[in-house]
Amino acid sequence: MNKVSAAPLIHVPIDNVVIGTRRRQKLGRLQDLARSIAEHGLIHPILLRGDTLVAGHRRLEACRSLEWKTIPARQVDRLSDDQLRAIELDENSKREALSDFATSKARLAQIRQAEADLRAKEKQEATNHVMEPRSKTTKHKGGRPAKRGVTLEAIAEAVGIDRTTLRETERHVAIAEQFPFMQRQGWQRHHVLDAGDQLQQLPDEDRSPIAALLDQDAIPPERAIELLTYAATMSPDRRRSIVQRASAEDAFVRRTALTDLGNVPPPPDPGLLALHDAAHAMTRAAASCRCADFKPRITELSADVSAVLKAFSAHEKEARTTNGSAV
User: Fold this and answer.
1) Could you write out the DSSP letters of every residue in 152-214?
2) What does pTM read for this prediction?
């Protein structure tokens, strides 16, 4: 497959592509594929051997339905018949859906390749222009000379997308590479762009610590964006407190930072949970003890532990209520 990816990307007229004998006799519904291509561009070019289609029949017909005149393609003339058949079989039966990040990454590579091709073409045209002899009889026509330089519009047109999609693709990849947890399945492009908008509202020094708090599989994209929105709208002092706790070595302190960011009461003190277990253990010990010398002492200790647990629980309840009303 490396030989396929190394093949140069070209644009060929759709009407010139020869279908030939295909394994896929039914193309199925092409509307969804056409909508995806219209929005995101063609991520995987079709494969050609000469003018004959090797892989990408559905993509070809979807682009034809969009009234594209040309389509990105790779020439794979050097591959053997067995290799080409293996590629087609893989295309039809084994290809898995890409994550949104992987899709944007592939699209960005296509954008960069199209930009490089356009710049090379422009450079070659400029060289040819310099080398061409000027005719003495040729008169200069009025108006300004054509503006040189590869434009975003030209790149977008070469890839088959609009300028907005091109910009969003670049931004999607940049944000997800800076914050890798946004590359996970479930994080769609619009999630990443929305999260990026909220992160942009934060001071530079607060972005990474706040984002690090959200680097958890249990936090879905929608909830992560809500938490980023809270962070962007809270007071600088409170956000600074969260940022400081977010980088603490103590895992419990880091959890309090996350709960504070989510406007929910802090987690219970780990000591309270352990004390709760200890109180139950002491109660069982007092009830099951058969030694007359130690049973009274164990019973007394059990009562003391239960009293401490009751007081500690009341303190935690008050603290959680105060915290909840404060936010």
Assistant:
1) HHHHHHHHTS-HHHHHHHHHHHHHHHHSGGGGSTT--HHHHHHHHHHHHTS-HHHHHHHHHHT
2) 0.53
